[in-house]
Amino acid sequence: MGLLSDPNRRRALISLLTRLNSPICVVCYMAGVAWFMGLAFEPFTLRTYMSENAMGSTMVEERFPAGERALTTGREFSAHKKKAGGMPVDWLVKTMQARGLEVFTQRFSRKLPFPDENKERYMVKGTNVYGILRAPRAPRTEALVLSAPCTPGDSNNQAVGLLLGLAQYFRNQIYWAKDIIFLVNEHDLIGMQACITFSPDSCRGGSIQAALSLELSSDVITSMDLVLEGLNGQLPNLDLANLFYAFCQKIGVLCTIQGKLQRNDWDSVSGYSHSVQTMMLMVMKQASGRPWGDHGLFLRYHIEAASIKGINSFRQYKTDVTTIGRLLEGMYRKLNNLLERLHQSYFFYLMPSLSHFVSIGYYMPAFGLLAVILLLRALDLWVQLATPPPRTEDGITDKEQVSSPGVLSVLTPLVISHLTGVALYTLPIQFQEMAVEQFPVSETEAVVLTAIGVYTAGLALPHNTHRLLSGEGTEQGWRVLKLVAVLYLAVLLGCTALINFSLGFILALTLVPVAAFVTPHVPKVLSAFILVILSPACTLLFSVFFFQELQELPVSFQEGWLLYLSVISQGILDHFLYGSLVYPLIALLVYPCWLLFWNILFWK
Amino acid sequence: VHLTISQSRAASSANHIQPLLVDNAGQFFSSGHTNNWAVLVCTSRFWFNYRHVANTLSVYRSVKRLGIPDSHIVLMLADDMACNHRNPKPATVFSHKNMELNVYGDDVEVDYRGYEVTVENFLRVLTGRLPPSTPRSKRLLSDDRSNILIYLTGHGGNGFLKFQDSEEISNVELADAFEQMWQKRRYNELLFIIDTCQGASMYERFYSPNLMALASSQVGEDSLSHQPDLAIGVHLMDRYTFYLLEFLEDIHPASKTNMNDLFKVCPKSQCVSTPGHRTDLFLRDPGSVLITDFFGSVRKVEITMETINLTDPIKQVEQRKYSYVDQLPVSEIIHQKPKQKDWHPPDGFILGLWTLILLVFFKLYGMKHLKHIF
Fold first, then answer.
1. How far apart (Å, rounded) are the C-alpha atoms in residues A167 and A175?
2. Which Pfam families match (chain A) (predicted)?
3. Low-confidence ranges of chain B (pLDDT < 50)
């Protein structure tokens, strides 16, 4: 007889499952966390290598000479920027035309759902200027993009200067097989969004193979930082990072990722913790779902893009702009050799340092171990539901309750939780005007505080839900609800982890213990407290503090709270401006799921 | 056409010289090949395979320099490197770094270009089965007195050569094509040179007579590229062909260098891989085979002031070791290598095993089940 078809053996298996359920869950959780921490340990990672044959090695000769001239152009740009009080469109158009590019401008205007206090803008109007360098002999079927942001104030002037210097140098070469689009975008991401969404008609370039965004605010730099995380945690093809790293090594520029320099002592504790910090920074940035550089919006359209930031810190060895120009020239020459889009290397990875990576095949088991806990719990509940309770005091009524635990008693919490989620999603924006009239707060604060208000109001739901329900809840009732909730959470977290592993993993870390231990029979006050601590909102609060710690900029509680509020407002703005999915995911799916567990806790 | 002029004979009385001249004439007309052909194939496309086109063009250049005219060369290049958009020096293909030697020149005649370089077209060229509309420049119009040089380069593996990233030619197909050529008397002697990874596997299966083969690497070894040019951004040549080109640059139409020197080109110290060669099917001694027998088009011309009366059929001066009459029986040649058979357990063992299983089955469950079977 088979293992599962033999009733004796099945009973034995099931009893094993129910007896050992909690220990196995605990072990799985520890194993998942340990696996995740072990990912940063260098012997478990792979060295990065160039996968694309067409890009080969770094064998090009970089000859960009005009670094000083680029700096002069940058200074001119800064002067014109001050005079124009924004983007000096006419000067840029004239300069790009003088360098032999086909210049186009694009006006855009956008009204934010509520004022952005970080960047102090509400109604945004701007112009993007881009010049296309046509490939001398090639058909106009493919393009590469180099962009620099036009930021108010004194930053990124050198970036625009270098962009124009490179444009002039590239114009004199005849080996370009793709068009190169030099883009200066205003109002960083909003301008970039405008350019990309309208690009099929107005950009008139071919299909874009790769894009690099340059941020450079000083005449000399000490290191170059690579930023990969894009919208919704999407990452460019690893080959782009490999290309950058290979050229940094060839030219001899210090390169960093997450602002952290690589260390060689992986076997020491401090070396390991350094790798863990770098990896955790990447995980946090990816989980936030916001684009961390101007490149972040390209990734959705299958255009591999990265941002390169020049950093000037207190190191002795400085690199000048000519060297940065050579690095970019080398990268673009190699990208020029591409025949197809970058597809040979990984799209899902984590980088504990610039020369090592962990691919999806290695990091997914960490999440899998956490998801197994949910499945074990579901199995346990299924078994409990299948076997009738031993006591039969009131024979007839129990039977009735056994046979139909009441679809209504399960459906009601589900519907109400999701309605609360919908309220959390829509109310803050809808009622901001009303809130501003009633209370002395600004619009942004109104939105954020409304969101927090709705969130906290959801905590009071169980008492009200039970008033609505006619009868009392039953033992079977909460089990069915928990089974549904656990499976729902498993599917939700699984789908999230596939798209954005970091977000899925962080949510799993906090929500899986909640799902595992919550029943109506645990001590109420303590469990309620733990549930609130592990809820998505508090996870976000702790993440904010943790993120600041990782960046070595620890904040006090006041500052942290204000930062937390701004993170919520930025999240909502990201969703409405660029289509980031984190806010709707949390509001419409994760929060209702958590509310279901809160309902189970207060089940009567 | 280049001439080697033998020593002029002092004129003397016609009667005395006639039989000697007739003998010499006999020797002259029975000496091997009368014309040379070359089939040069580059099988890879894409910019990063620049070196394969440069390889083929280097051999083309040497072969043309040594006398084979364009009408006797079939040049197949799978991609256009000289006019590729990424070439910083358009209309050139360089074989040496610092752009010393432009092998593209201005009189290159490519017969099969781009997507026309396929396995089918290559085999049709070799066997001569081309549609009637094919122009002469695309045909290999060789006869039984032609010495043919075949040069292949590209990406290969154990037993195959990749054509254009989409198909392959196997060593068996190639050997069969050469056998077709032999049976149709399309060559006198054939020299096969291949510069790919694991190139020696391509000549393993040859079984037709008068084939000599050279390869740049043995089975299991990779052929390496020689040097990158940083201005162009690609590797310019493969090592084996680079040293082959250097060797050939020293050859002139009157050289007496023989094949044994060619086998020594690119030892392991320079090539990193071990070049190989195969001469067992070749009936002459490689030491007596001149390089110009294959790479050049050398005409032997004897100047005489006498009139020779060729009324009688020319008698063979000596009994040649090889002749077209005694062809090697094909059926014996095909089974050169013993077929690799997978080991199976002996038949009796399998029968016994099944009997045992049946017996155990019936013992356990009783003989009554037998009736269900019988």
1. 14
2. Gaa1
3. 1-15, 322-327, 331
